[in-house]
Amino acid sequence: MKRASALAALVVAALALFVAPAPPTLGPATTGDPALAKLVRNAAGQEGFRGLSVALIEDGRVRYAGVGDTGGADPRPVDQDTAYELGSITKPMTGMLLADLASEGLSPDTPVRDLLPRVAFSDPAVAGATLAELSSHRAGIPTLRMTPVGFLRSYLYVFAGEDPYAAAGPRSMLDDAAAVSAGKRGEVSYSNLGAALLGQALAERAGADYETLLRTRLLAPLGMDATVVLQPDEPLPARHARGQNVNGLPMEPWRDHGHAGAGGAVWSTAHDVARLVQAVMAGSAPGADAATPRFDAGDGERIGYGWFTTRYGEREVTWHNGGTGGFRTYAGFDRASGRGVVVMGNTGTAVDGVGLRLLGAEPPAGGGPEIRPLIFALVFPFLGLGLLYSAFRAPVLDRVSVATRALWAVLFLGLGHTAGGWDVVPPFVWALGAGVLGAAVAAAVARRPVLPVSAKPVTWRTWLSPVIAIVLLAAFAFFLIG
């Protein structure tokens, strides 16, 4: 039995290496300015990125470079016209809409209830939040409304790459805003829901939807023709990158157009965002005054209407980043040096450090790895250890318990594959976990002829745990494949 178990472990582990997690790596493809592409590769390193589209603004001139590829079934080199999910860089754009409308008489101190009189806010503090507070994250509104359904979606996002917002529209977003309670006002506490509420309030005031307001007041004047807010039934931009997480798991696009003011369902390109940054630096963009620091954001940071300003040594950088399921973006500029940057990537690895290095600033030292992905990587794949021990040592073992524990171990092996921290833990560790499970199953099968169906009298409860495991495995496979 020991020999068969050891052989099974070796065979399964060797086969598992072929399907082990494969964190993305920056490919060799290069487009645009060769010198800039070299700088980008030096700033990025090789791990954690699949493709990066970059714009660098110096002395009023814009250079572009693309390194790596789009991913997907038909990967293509990325360039300045490759479309990415923009994410939260839309927040300072919403702040610019506020600043632009303020120049025409809209007071930033207007309570949001005045622009959304039909929304039945449950908390007077939320209803009384001002437009300026919403744009600077000082309204005390939580970043999201957490519900049981939302909690479930968050885990479908982590384990299967599903859209956690499920194409939430404006009505759904307003319902969430109406239901939440505000915390402490006046202190900066980042809120996606607050920024989305601001976008919808400004759209209501203009008598249009958010996309129309954004396009007429900001995108069209700047010639940002490739920036779009996608509706749930609209196709993705023709030249889009494919998003994936840090493990290489494909991530579903986020279709939450109701959160467009905060970055939901917004796609753009490095070329378009460079136009935005260049115009804000020059002060010629509509609402460019939104980038002026107005409020203390803590830890040496200040914030205007959506734009953060942070000092890095001798550099003072005005910036915002963005992150969705499979994309990370960064836009920033240093007025003193006249340098600006846009970095867009199609993985879950942050690109802020790349942008700061291109601006000549030294990124702050990063914290340690997140605990949850480490647990998923170091614990989940080794659930078969319990079965392996029982197969050799337990005097009482039955076929139902063997099947049940094997099914649960397979499920957790799959969960560890998709959500483990394989950018930190070597992926071969996952193959070792598969080998342990293979050894456990082989040892249990070797004892099968002498095992009873169940060590206890068979009732409907006997089959409950294996049936639950089968249902969860089927659901996991459905969401993963679908």
UniProtKB/TrEMBL annotation:
Residues 36-350 form the Beta-lactamase-related domain. It holds the Pfam family Beta-lactamase. InterPro entries: AmpC-like, Beta-lactam-related, Beta-lactam/transpept-like. The keyword rRNA processing does not apply. Residues 1-22 form the signal peptide. GO terms for molecular function: hydrolase activity. Keywords: Hydrolase, Membrane, Signal, Transmembrane, Transmembrane helix. The chain crosses the membrane at residues 374-392, 404-422, 428-446, 458-481. PANTHER family: BETA-LACTAMASE-RELATED DOMAIN-CONTAINING PROTEIN, D-ALANYL-D-ALANINE-CARBOXYPEPTIDASE/ENDOPEPTIDASE AMPH. This is Serine hydrolase. It comes from Nonomuraea corallina. The lineage of its organism: Bacteria, Bacillati, Actinomycetota, Actinomycetes, Streptosporangiales.
